[in-house]
Amino acid sequence: xxxxxxxxxxxxxxxxxxxxxxxxxxxxxxxxxxxxxxxxxxxxxxxxxxxxxxxxxxxxxxxxxxxxxxxxxxxxxxxxxxxxxxxxxxxxxxxxxxxxxxxxxxxxxxxxxxxxxxxxxxxxxxxxxxxxxxxxxxxxxxxxxxxxxxxxxxxxxxxxxxxxxxxxxxxxxxxxxxxxxxxxxxxxxxxxxxxxxxxxxxxxxxxxxxxxxxxxxxxxxxxxxxxxxxxxxxxxxxxxxxxxxxxxxxxxxxxxxxxxxxxxxxxxxxx
Length: 271
Ligand SMILES: NC(=O)c1ccc[n+]([C@@H]2O[C@H](COP(=O)([O-])OP(=O)(O)OC[C@H]3O[C@@H](n4cnc5c(N)ncnc54)[C@H](O)[C@@H]3O)[C@@H](O)[C@H]2O)c1
Prior knowledge:
Blueprint: E1 10-14, H1 22-32, E2 36-41, H2 43-48, H3 51-58, E3 61-64, H4 70-84, E4 88-93, H5 99-102, H6 112-135, E5 139-149, H7 163-185, E6 188-194, H8 200-203, H9 208-218, H10 226-237, E7 248-251, H11 262-269
Nicotinamide-adenine-dinucleotide binds at residues 14-15, 17, 21-23, 41-42, 45, 66-68, 94-97, 121, 148-150, 194, 196-197, 199-202.
């Protein structure tokens, strides 16, 4: 049971593919906190994933939108405003994809067409979504817009590949657009930098299991789960965080501030 933190609020959630998706958990948590939501994903994901199951549970409409298409985004925001009979209070961008990662290209042997496609899907789409919403004046004052990021934007993780640059771009858009949205509409724009999480996108990264375990052993509180991430997102959509904007917020059990943990020292000493 939620705490009604989002009672009366209306939101759009991008990126719920299946029940492992972080966006799936955010949708459930938002609805259990009293929100009305619209779910959206790329047309192919609507066919291959199980989003309609989630829509039934959440009593929400599903609108197809490729997040790289301005036409699709305009249609999404316009339809949402008609359906909600008003503007939107919160938006979650939970989208990531690298063609180079999918095709197992090494970082030292990137294909640049793949790179550009991945950048568009994972990062430029955030700017497109913000710009479409801004021009349509689709978001209520003190609304909240969030995207999900990863610490590879600041530090190198060899197999995260070109997704590292995508996340750096994404976090920069939150700061730059956050300035304009804050100044003109009091609207917040932030990114959450989440722990490794077992999802379709996550497990696409080479060596993900070892990556996951390492982070779990370094973080004093262990890895943050998708369910905990959903709760954090809801707090950032709520009126309790109205002045938080232009931030990259670590949600990682303490990973980002830890040099080494006793567990790792013990493992090294055993050698
Ligand atoms: N899983 C992790 O370890 C982890 C850690 C930190 C951050 N993140 C980020 O969380 C976000 C959500 O990923 P997830 O782990 O829940 O995986 P996921 O695979 O469940 O979600 C990725 C989503 O992106 C959608 N998508 C891809 N191309 C699209 C397009 N053109 N238009 C619209 N949607 C599109 C997919 O359909 C899918 O729903 C991503 O930004 C990811 O980078 C994930």
